[in-house]
Amino acid sequence: MGETPVPLYYKLYVELKEGLQSGKYKKGDKLPTEKELCQKHGLSRLTVRRAMDELRREGFIERLKGKGTFVTGSKREEQLATLTGFTDEAKKRGCETRSMVLENRLVKVPVDAVEFFKIPAEALVVYLKRVRFLEEEPYAIEEAYLNVGADIRLLNIVQRDMEKESLYDILRNEFEINISYAEEEMELARLKKDEARFLKQEVNDCAILRKRFTYTKSDVCVEFVVSLYRADKSKFKIVRRI
């Protein structure tokens, strides 16, 4: 039985991806146009476009209307087996981060968290909503609800400059709250208008919706976080052992 022929688009995809991973193309570099790639490789525009679409889906490149196609770099990989904050995870990889605070105030506990926080449905919690940036690019929108019933000192968060401070640093080092484990769930979502604007994406682009309940060593739920990650920038890894 003969070997199955490799599709032409896939050959081009592999060649371009190797160039991106080897450093031939650097972050911010402009790639050749579809027409130039067609002429260089003797391929149809449809074939070239399919290869480019695959690279875009994996987060290596992005198209800017009227400007061309540019290298964005690879996706940020996060280990799901380890419980760390956004800032801590980025620092481990030598990445620059910053945050833009959209809201930092008291709100009524969300319905999803009432059972886990074990507080009355009318109780107030701290609501901290931020856009998280990685290497000066918007990476995620994060909404954190902090259970004041778990520790009254959490009320102080509304007075803090959370564009400059790490929430987990405050919880662990200043308040000495012993964060132990978290329960998470993830699913695909579509970006709404405001979400797309903050993340510099298009409306209805895919995103990763991540929900997390964080617990102390004494099994008290101290935090409920709802995050939207850019699908073209994110991937998650978990190691399973028998």
TrEMBL record:
Q: Keywords in alphabetical order, please.
A: DNA-binding, Transcription, Transcription regulation
Gene Ontology MF terms: DNA binding; DNA-binding transcription factor activity
Transit peptide as a keyword of this entry, yes or no, is: no
Q: Does the keyword DNA-binding apply?
A: yes
Q: Which InterPro entries match?
A: Bact_HTH_transcr_reg, Chorismate_lyase_/UTRA_dom_sf, Tscrpt_reg_HTH_GntR, UTRA, WH-like_DNA-bd_sf, WH_DNA-bd_sf
What Pfam family is a match for this entry? GntR
Q: Which domain of life is it from?
A: Bacteria
Could you tell me which residue ranges the HTH gntR-type domain spans? 6-74
Name of the protein this chain belongs to: Transcriptional regulator
Species source reads Mesotoga infera
* Organismal lineage: Bacteria, Thermotogati, Thermotogota, Thermotogae, Kosmotogales
